[in-house]
Fold this sequence. Notes:
Helices cover 35% and strands 19% of the residues. The protein is α+β, with helices and mostly antiparallel strands. It has a domain at 47-148: Phosphorylase Kinase, domain 1 (2-Layer Sandwich). The chain has a six-stranded antiparallel beta sheet with strand order 1-2-3-5-4-6, sandwiched between helices. Strand 4 (106-110) and strand 5 (114-117) form a beta hairpin. The N and C termini lie far apart (100 Å).
Amino acid sequence: xxxxxxxxxxxxxxxxxxxxxxxxxxxxxxxxxxxxxxxxxxxxxxxxxxxxxxxxxxxxxxxxxxxxxxxxxxxxxxxxxxxxxxxxxxxxxxxxxxxxxxxxxxxxxxxxxxxxxxxxxxxxxxxxxxxxxxxxxxxxxxxxxxxxx
Length: 149
């Protein structure tokens, strides 16, 4: 009986130690899978999350919390007000933002519950990290033509 127990212990140790023919198994190669942002832009809870995830494409060293617009839960501006980042309560807040922008015209990068208002080149660069869709919103007010000239 003691020989049988010794044999079992040796076999158990060999199995646990991964004994083979003396060669170590090569480690699996490390592969990094690039993460792609969600096509719909996903959801955010704070504008600062959007700025951080943009990986520097939103040049916002100094974020300023600003008054919230209708439908926005939180809003920050940066780059002397050239970029406005908003998180809305839901997608209806995004729709409200689009309707408001029709009074002035502009460009938006939109996710499920967030918007970024900036120049088209900034939005295009940010979209690669944030996902979402870019929409140019023309001004529908008669006074816009006067402001553009």
